[in-house]
Write a structure and sequence with these properties.
Strand order of the largest sheet: 2-1-3-4-5-6
Helix content: 25-40%
Radius of gyration: 23 Å
Bound molecules: 5'-deoxyadenosine, iron/sulfur cluster
CATH class of the largest domain: Alpha Beta
Number of domains: 4
Oligomer: single chain
Mean pLDDT: 95
Length: 483
């Protein structure tokens, strides 16, 4: 049974707690609901919550699941941290993500002193690190709940433990092979949604902490994915973003293995769905059949995010990326030969241990050869516990920063030229929102993910309209509606 069909007021909350999931969570949601009703009456106003998301789209999706559970319990969303339940869904991919969370915790403490009902929960990637949990346990004792990436579905159960006991609740799982389906989720947008197709990562790139905090790779069953997408479409969604750390290795862990290309073909068949996006693609696993499927698809967007990380084969080897500069460039050639118009974007790390000036020049070279539509650039950040953290020859900060600035300049110039190549064309735009600076303008996205602002009206939100791309302003367009 789908959770939406369950009457949470009629669950026997005095009986024994179920052992199987998701029934066990339904039981705790119902229990928390009872508690929330009483509390609401006691304080004479609705209980409020806010989820603050740090990091990637995977975390954004997890936060929607947290919001779904909180709404079902009876909390009402607010946009300030002066709330009764504040959850930080954390990231730890680079050190500055951790620093930001610690910085904000002090502020939360001051809010908690003013609101005795306030509960503070920390979850997500950062909480999977022992040192972080130790530090919070010792120095941030006002935190109510800590959980990780593998058990966010347990939010109601953990909240129930917190309200029926004293002290911080800590529940971190080292890994899991469990995928709990059929839980509520509160979408940020009516017309587009992220859909997890797999969890975890098995690649162990030597700089990256993700495999340690998100566990081993596991794919969702295609039937569950298709069912979710059909339900989303029935609920007004026309664009899905398929999420996974390495979508190109989708399906390898299934009882009946299925490739990502095959999954895409199944998703393409969902009637009413108009656009399919996905991220992230690891170049080492991108198959020729995926290129074929993309080329022939009417729904897959004209965009591929293909992180290169570095241009030098030496550095790539030390990063454990399993491809060379030449094989990456050959792959890009095959993609461009099949889809000459496709937008390519990438991630690049500058200052990986041992990166020489010559290595860096190869990164610049690859950027010039591929001509990315845009690129996310990162200064290498040392993550304790990863193989790269103990490598000799960490690059000096000033050198790394100088390379970073040089790369950014190069990328910005190329990116502006690449983005402008559609000037004058008429293109389809999925209208997303009223422009935040000028309420006469609507903001939407092209198939290649570039933003377009044009005069329109809010009733267009969630539909696909035709827009003439009048003027490119670097990384976005000013357009005009074509009726
Ligand atoms: N330092 C800098 N950037 C990193 N990334 C992952 N780990 C690190 C690190 N230790 C970047 C990679 C990845 C993106 C999501 O984050 O470029 O593709
Ligand atoms: Fe990290 Fe590499 Fe896995 Fe991406 S593929 S999450 S960079 S280990």
């Amino acid at each position: 049974m789908n959770y939406a069909e369950i009457d949470f007021n009629n669950i026997d909350i005095n009986g024994k707690e179920p052992i199987t999931e998701p029934q066990r969570q339904y039981y705790f949601m119902a229990k928390c609901r009872e508690w929330a009703k009483t509390k609401t009456l006691e304080i004479g106003r609705p209980l409020t919550y806010i989820t603050q998301t740090f990091g990637c789209q995977m975390n954004a999706k997890d936060s929607e699941k947290l919001s779904g559970i909180l709404e079902l319990i009876g909390f009402v969303e607010t946009d300030t941290e002066e709330a009764d339940f504040v959850v930080y869904n954390t990231c730890t991919v680079r050190e500055n993500a951790n620093t930001r969370v610690y910085g904000r915790l002090g502020f939360l403490n001051s809010l908690k002193k003013k609101n005795p009902n306030m509960m503070i929960a920390l979850c997500g990637c950062m909480m999977q690190e022992d040192a972080v949990v130790d530090k919070i346990r010792k120095s941030y004792r006002f935190v109510d709940m800590i959980f990780g990436t593998h058990n966010i579905f347990k939010l109601a159960e953990l909240m129930y433990s917190r309200i029926t006991s004293k002290g911080m609740i800590i529940d971190i799982w080292k890994d899991t092979d469990q995928i709990v389906e059929d839980l509520p989720s509160e979408r940020k947008y009516k017309f587009k949604a992220g859909v997890n197709i797999m969890y975890g990562c098995n690649n162990f790139c030597s700089y990256c902490i993700v495999p340690y905090v998100r566990g081993r790779e596991r794919s969702r069953n295609p039937e569950d994915i298709i069912k979710e997408i059909k339900e989303l479409v029935a609920d007004g969604v026309i664009e899905v973003m398929l999420l996974g750390q390495n979508v190109n290795s989708y399906g390898k862990t299934l009882d009946k293995p299925m490739s990502f290309a095959e999954l895409l073909q199944e998703i393409e068949k969902v009637e009413g769905l108009e656009r399919i996006r996905f991220m992230t693609s690891h170049p080492k696993d991108l198959s020729d059949s995926l290129i074929e499927v993309m080329k022939d698809s009417k729904k897959i967007c004209s965009h591929l995010h293909l992180p290169v990380q570095a241009g030098s084969t030496d550095v790539l080897k030390k990063m454990n990326r399993s491809y060379t500069k030449e094989s990456y460039l050959a792959l890009v050639e095959r993609i461009k030969a099949a889809m000459p118009d496709i937008s390519l974007t990438t991630d690049i790390i500058v200052g990986f241990p041992g990166e020489t000036d010559e290595d860096f020049l190869e990164t610049l070279e690859i950027v010039k050869k591929v001509r990315y539509d845009s690129a996310y650039t990162f200064l290498y950040s040392k993550r304790t516990g990863t193989p790269a953290a103990v490598l000799d020859c960490q690059v000096e900060d000033t050198v790394a920063k100088e390379r970073f600035d040089r790369l950014l300049k190069e990328i910005q110039a190329i990116s502006a030229e690449m983005t402008a190549r559609h000037e004058g064309e008429i293109s389809k735009v999925l209208v997303e929102e009223v422009n935040q600076q000028n309420d006469k303008l609507m903001t939407g996205r092209l198939s290649n993910n570039v933003l377009v602002h044009f005069e329109g009206s809010p009733d267009m939100i969630g539909s696909i309209v035709k827009v003439s791309l009048k003027e490119c302003k670097g990384f976005y367009y000013i357009g005009e509606l074509v009726s």
